[in-house]
Amino acid sequence: MLVLSSRDIESVISYEEMIEAIERAYVIYEEGKYYMPDRFHVDYKNKTLLYMPCFLDDVFGTKILTVFPENVEKKIPSLDGLMLLNDFETGKPTCLMDGKILTALRTGAVGGVGIKYTTPEDVKTVGLIGAGVQGFYQVLYACKVRNFKKVYIFDEYVKDLTDFVDRLRKVIPTDVEIIICKSSEDLVRRSDVVITATTATEPTMPNSTELLRGKHFIGIGSYKPTMREYPDALSSLVEDVYIDADIALEETGDLIQPIAAGLLKNSQVKRISKLIASGGEIKDLEHKTTFFKTVGIAIFDIVAANAIYKKAVEAEVGYLLD
Amino acid sequence: MLVLSSRDIESVISYEEMIEAIERAYVIYEEGKYYMPDRFHVDYKNKTLLYMPCFLDDVFGTKILTVFPENVEKKIPSLDGLMLLNDFETGKPTCLMDGKILTALRTGAVGGVGIKYTTPEDVKTVGLIGAGVQGFYQVLYACKVRNFKKVYIFDEYVKDLTDFVDRLRKVIPTDVEIIICKSSEDLVRRSDVVITATTATEPTMPNSTELLRGKHFIGIGSYKPTMREYPDALSSLVEDVYIDADIALEETGDLIQPIAAGLLKNSQVKRISKLIASGGEIKDLEHKTTFFKTVGIAIFDIVAANAIYKKAVEAEVGYLLD
């Protein structure tokens, strides 16, 4: 079994390959060529252990995550975990890799693919609300799929973003300017594309159609019905909402709540995978307000992890156990 | 996270420490100081993926197993897997180790502890029915807890046991004689203690009270209601059956079938953990026919794995990921 650290992972896979992996995952999802059982979860003393298995045609595996909300007080990420790949024919574990960086990279790539398909090619400014680990990789991938000139950042809780900005500067093109915003309203006003990557349970921006009109929104947080990043105003502006998987309709408050309130119709919610698998595109993007919402599915993990594993074998990177 | 190969595991933990770990696990089980959810399993195209989580007071973890029955045709073990340990306070993965050798060692130790508590101290001969991976470690641990002078071996399917015997000779005391038997009847007749480690669905020995009387039986196989290693005659000879966990009453055909047939009473089935936790012993062992039956529980895995992990940290053995 090959064991890959976060550094190993980042050293073998390019951002472009990660984006390709996610596009491939969408085609597999659209074609139904997978078996993805419901997540298993164990809850014990405010600790959650999650097992997310997925079978493809030629590989299967499990992402194993721990969710410890109390870690936040200890300044430790609440999420930790591993990704395990198994040989499809024998079950033998073939690869084990850091699950935190895999999750961050694949979620970054999911956001990037979202931008690629739901925003015009000539967008120049991107805003990030929520400067955490996920947000970091969101900006990184955003800058891979579009030639952004300015990155705006706002975080309601982290007041000193120096370290975040310093790290970001090292990985995005040198000509991109990074600007800290004093409010989410300011950020949304100045950004063509807005990415939200928070754990908010209330909208992260003002409920104003005037403010939101013509912008392109990428929703990364809100993976529970009680979580929400977007105000009602967004529902009245969008023609359709693009989602990464049907399960989003059961998981995110950003769909469940406006649908329950009658502000959004089920028929307006569309799978981005259909667009990707058919090679289609959204027409007249530059005149539309768009919203791409991802909740994440195990297919992303397994396809991305398998791509990383193959690259690591090729590059002879990692630690071979036994 | 520390990654331990099968060699790492065997190099850091002694048989005595493994036996102590199992005895500690029994005390934890008897005192109820654990949380052990039901196993999760995913079945897909005749492949099974099992997650066996367990929480103790200071550590938690999961054994992840694959069961691929078709592997047998390919001469590959049908079982493979890994054991993951997590930090109790943060959820962080702390250790990952080979699950095959962990399972073999802890099952060996469970058998050894069974022998320690359910057989007289002066037994001289042990017989093994089923010369597979589990059987190998059963004999190894048996020879740690009793001064056996002769080991008898019988396997209905493996006709050439040369390799098995050669490997065994290297790990058991040099004065122990190893003898291959032509039948299970012959083996039982010559053995004071009989260990069965098969995947049999029919009894592995003749249904004869005369043959079985006064012997001490250790049942390792039969982990499903349809599996059975012992004939009805055994039920009529034993005063009590000792089990490793209450779940045995729902899992093994070696209890379910004789109880259903009215040959064994529920009240005759006792937890060995009660004996171990209370420091008690079975009286008049040398005049009794005894039966210890194990089905295995996740507490064994987590306690044994944690002991191995601590020893590996101490000895600075293993590969440190990130």
Automatic annotation (TrEMBL), chains A, B:
SUPFAM superfamilies in the cross-refs: NAD(P)-binding Rossmann-fold domains
Q: Which Pfam families match?
A: OCD_Mu_crystall
Q: Name one GO cellular component term.
A: cytoplasm
Q: Where are the transmembrane segments?
A: none
- Put simply, this protein is called Ornithine cyclodeaminase
The species this protein was found in: Anaerosphaera aminiphila DSM 21120
